Amino acid sequence: MKSPHKRFFWVLMISFGGMLMPIFVLNLILLNDTLGNTHKVLLASQWQQQTHGVTYAPTLSDTHLFKTLRLNDRLPEINTVVFGSSTALGITEQDFPDTLHLYNYAQTGNPLSAVIGEADYIQQHASNIKWLIIPMDWSLGFIYQSGSPPDADLSMETTMRQTQAVQRPVPLIDRMRDALSYPRISSLFEILSQIRRADDRMAAFRGYFMQDGSNDYRCTDGTLGKDFDTIHRGTCTGFRFDGSATFANSARVNNASPLISAALSSNSQYYKNLLLTDGLPNPIFLQRINELNKRAMKNGGGVIVFMPPLLPGMEAEFLRHPQLGAVLQKTKQTLQKWSKENEVILFDAGQSERYDCHDDEFLDQHHATATCYNKIFHQFWLNMPNPDKTITPFSAGKKQ
């Protein structure tokens, strides 16, 4: 390389490095303060217990610790627990009659096998919990997975130990790679933009880079909010006091057709999940849920099992599919027969259009928001035979 070209090369590299270095350093600061930071999760839980506000704890991709802290705090005052994965996070306490006081313990990526173990633990350690709400996701394949449910330990002692455990540090090379990734750089520019627009820029900078969380603020509905992660600040993204998710940062579906077409393609997760066991749910799961229901009924409650809502029109297309339709029908018939024989309350919300849910009440093919779930449960309580005199139908006392 000739000398002028060599000088130009190094000037270019130094200039490029000079632009990236501040980005790199600031993102490393943010990453070091959030990755594996269980102390912030504890702070978020304590803040929500005191204020009943909406909070975001790092990180929404791993919600087990936060949800278990919150569940333990709420246990003395509730009698109903919603379990499941993120497909059940739209369920709020407003969906239930006044006599049912619930906490939504659903967690991101939580399979049915883990749910059964969690429900079993709650049933054995909290006699005041009478009603267990359990989703049966065919679309995510959870009901078809093999194996037996593992035992769960949701005790406050074990959970607090997790908040105090020394986290294994993320390797430096992984942090460096993450710090220079597009999502992190994009998030940093948004943070810097928020700081630039703030009335007190130094206070805003300290809030992002030096404090455990944001300052308290008000959501659009007047609820208090506070964020303990640096992304989605000030948007009321996170969990409500009842454990449900706001999904405030997530775009809604505006055109279902391409998403349904993608779901029906042979390489989609939905297509593959249906064919895992030719539509037959894991019989061990069904037996364990039956046992949960028997014990709950003796305790004056029961298990309510439901098939979560899917994007309007999606399940109907699967049922019309020449290969998948018969498989999905086998799943539904198996669950209906099992529920009838074992007196397990089951309702199927898969075809959400039957409950007047719309495309813009979904984030994607299988995540319904609170407004859709409200319609579904409203109809469920109106039509459900009253199994217990402590439960009143919506028409007689629904929270508004």
Q: Averaged pLDDT, please?
A: 85
Q: Would you count the extended β strands for me?
A: 8
**Helical stretch tally:** 15
Beta-strand level of the residues, as a percent range?
5-15%
Structural class: alpha/beta
Helical content band: 40-55%
Shape, per Cα inertia axes: globular
Mind telling me the C-alpha Rg?
Answer: 24 Å
Write the layout of secondary structure elements.
Layout: H1 3-34, H2 38-51, E1 54-56, H3 64-74, E2 80-82, E3 102-104, H4 112-125, E4 131-135, H5 156-164, H6 172-179, H7 182-197, H8 201-209, E5 217-218, E6 224-227, H9 256-264, H10 269-274, H11 283-298, E7 302-307, H12 314-320, H13 324-342, E8 345-348, H14 370-383, H15 394-397
Parallel strand pairs: 1-6, 2-3, 2-4, 4-7, 7-8
Antiparallel strand pairs: 5-6
Helix pairs in contact: 1-6, 2-3, 2-5, 3-5, 4-11, 7-8, 12-13
Which descriptors apply to this entry?
single chain, alpha/beta, 5-stranded parallel sheet, 15 helices, 8 strands, globular, disordered C terminus
Describe the overall structure:
There is one protein chain. By secondary structure, the protein is α/β, with parallel strands linked by helices. It contains 15 helices and eight strands. It has helices spanning 3-34, 38-51, 64-74, 112-125, 156-164, 172-179, 182-197, 201-209, 256-264, 269-274, 283-298, 314-320, 324-342, 370-383, 394-397; strands at residues 54-56, 80-82, 102-104, 131-135, 217-218, 224-227, 302-307, 345-348. The protein has a five-stranded parallel beta sheet, with helices on one face. The radius of gyration is 24 Å and the shape is globular. Mean pLDDT is 85; it is low at 387-400.
